[in-house]
Specification:
By secondary structure, this protein is of the alpha/beta class. It folds into three domains: 193 residues, Rossmann fold (3-Layer(aba) Sandwich), CATH 3.40.50.2000; 176 residues, Glycogen Phosphorylase B (Rossmann fold, 3-Layer(aba) Sandwich), CATH 3.40.50.2000; 48 residues. It is built from 20 helices and 13 strands. Strand 1, helix 1 and strand 2 form a beta-alpha-beta unit. The longest helix has 23 residues. It starts with a strand and ends with a helix. It comes from Epidermidibacterium keratini. This is Glycosyltransferase. GO terms for molecular function: glycosyltransferase activity. Keywords: Transferase.
Length: 474
């Protein structure tokens, strides 16, 4: 039986979309194709439209809540991700089926994203992430994540919040009705064939005979572009036609993304004298519907990262685009996708921070046309497992017969005046601590005194009544 579904994302839904919005878009697309009435709602901005479902938005951070309230009230089922219910916990008080998308472990991602912040700022960011996750885990009816490794992580979190209990276990001993796998997917259609070029003969320095390594996504602090740039700087000595292209280095929400690795990448490329000659940064963000033009023109897809907790639980969405366009892959070991590359022989996975191993892996694939062609065949075979129509099936099945969690959310808090008062007080204490750490107690006291005096002056100068104000002869 068709139901009304609200898919809510904190990302912008435009022609230039990043991972969270892309995932929300395709969830909405697949659910609409099964006859459900779907609205995709962005809490920031949206101008991308489709005939398949409704797309709308409001700038929730500015207080424009009414459109979001209307969509939630309309829906039978809400699918949410990220921080939405942290900032708008009233959503959890509505009598809706709640699907929580945990494909992005935000608390682990922050360990890298906020690595350059002060300790107090780090505490604020991490506390916010845990607060967001706690609410989702307490109130969710059904959870999805991107990999088995992530599922193990989230089963631990669910266990800590007492969601692994006898009631849920009796209903389903495998706990798939509580949390199931929905990997990031690829388009159900093959990429459109294009005759033109967007790189060779177009980007300065990239000639018609260039061998192109494509980095298809942003450069964030958990990535290691420097080792890759060093490998290319070495490789150019034996293969002068090699070119590394960073496609769209600036995230659509650039102010929200840490960019220390991006600055390092520019600096090292310049120091090694390969910037603009063998290493190219395409500023901005490639429109979602045009990304295939860059992917189809490349010879290899590349992705390098550091080995840490963020790596262990990530699921690199750019790797799915490599599958979609049949690109052999060279990547760093340590994450979920590197294991797939190795097991399915989709290219090569090399040790982290190993310039020589990375250089050699790239050269082996570039030097052997037959190896590259055979690898492309295996890449396309693996890609079939990740079509959106396939990977989204657990959500399709849930929405076909939605249910409230059998355990009745045993640890869910009451969302009311006491909750909001405690939350707001805790936030103020954290922010005061951060301010003092950065600026010191004296500045805090001085600022507080200045604000108190300013408020007192405004009170003194305020007209005693509206009548008195209206009687002013001027």
């Amino acid at each position: 039986m068709p139901i009304k579904i609200a898919v809510i994302t904190d990302d912008v839904v435009t022609e230039r979309m990043a991972g969270p919005a892309i995932r929300a878009w395709h969830l909405a697309t697949e659910l609409a194709s099964h006859g459900h009435e779907v609205t995709l709602f962005s809490t920031r901005f949206a101008d991308r439209q489709t005939a398949d479902f409704t797309v709308t938005y409001s700038a929730v951070a500015t207080g424009a809540l009414e459109p979001l309230r209307e969509v939630v009230a309309w829906a039978d089922c809400v699918i949410t991700q990220g921080y939405t219910t942290f900032f708008e916990p009233w959503i959890l008080t509505q009598d809706k089926y709640l699907v929580v998308d945990l494909y992005d472990p935000i608390h682990i991602e922050l360990l890298e994203a906020e690595s350059a912040a002060s300790p107090a700022e780090q505490e604020i960011a991490l506390a916010r992430a845990y607060d967001a996750l706690d609410l989702q885990v307490e109130f969710g009816d059904f959870f999805i994540c991107a990999s088995q490794r992530q599922r193990d992580l989230w089963l631990g979190y669910l266990s800590a919040k007492r969601r692994l209990n006898f009631v849920n276990y009796r209903v389903d001993p495998e706990l798939n009705q509580l949390i199931d796998l929905v990997p990031f997917g690829i388009s159900n259609d093959d990429p459109p064939v294009t005759d033109g070029h967007v790189l060779r003969g177009v980007v300065p320095g990239i000639d018609a005979d260039a061998e192109i390594l494509l980095w298809a996504g942003g450069i964030y602090n958990w990535f290691d572009p420097v080792t890759l740039i060093r490998a290319v700087a070495e490789l150019r000595r034996t293969r002068p036609s090699v070119h590394l292209v960073f496609m769209g280095v600036r995230h659509p929400l650039a102010d929200a993304v840490a960019d220390g690795s991006l600055r390092d990448a520019y600096r090292v490329a310049e120091e090694l004298e390969v910037l603009g000659s063998h290493v190219h940064f395409l500023d901005g963000w490639v429109p979602y519907e045009q990304r295939h033009q860059y992917l189809l023109e490349a010879d290899l897809g590349v992705s390098t990262h550091f080995v840490n907790a963020e790596t262990a639980y990530s699921f690199r969405t750019r790797m799915l685009d490599y599958l979609w366009c049949g690109l052999p892959i060279v990547c760093t070991e340590g994450d979920e996708f590197a294991a797939i590359v190795a097991a399915d022989e989709l290219g090569e996975a090399v040790p982290a921070r190993n310039v020589e191993a990375l250089r050699a892996a790239i050269e082996r694939l570039l030097a052997d046309d037959n190896l590259r062609a055979q690898t492309r065949v295996r890449v396309r075979a693996t890609a079939e497992r990740y079509r959106w129509s396939s990977v989204v099936q657990p959500v399709v099945q849930y929405c076909a017969a939605p249910y409230k969690s059998p355990d009745g959310h045993p640890t869910a808090r009451t969302i009311g005046p006491v909750f909001y008062a405690k939350r707001d007080a805790t936030r103020r204490v954290r922010h005061v601590r951060a301010y003092v750490e950065i600026n010191g107690w004296r500045r805090l006291i001085r600022r507080g005194t200045e604000r108190t005096l300013a408020a007192g002056l405004r009170l003194v100068r305020r007209p005693r009544s509206s009548t008195a104000a209206n009687d002013d002869p001027s």
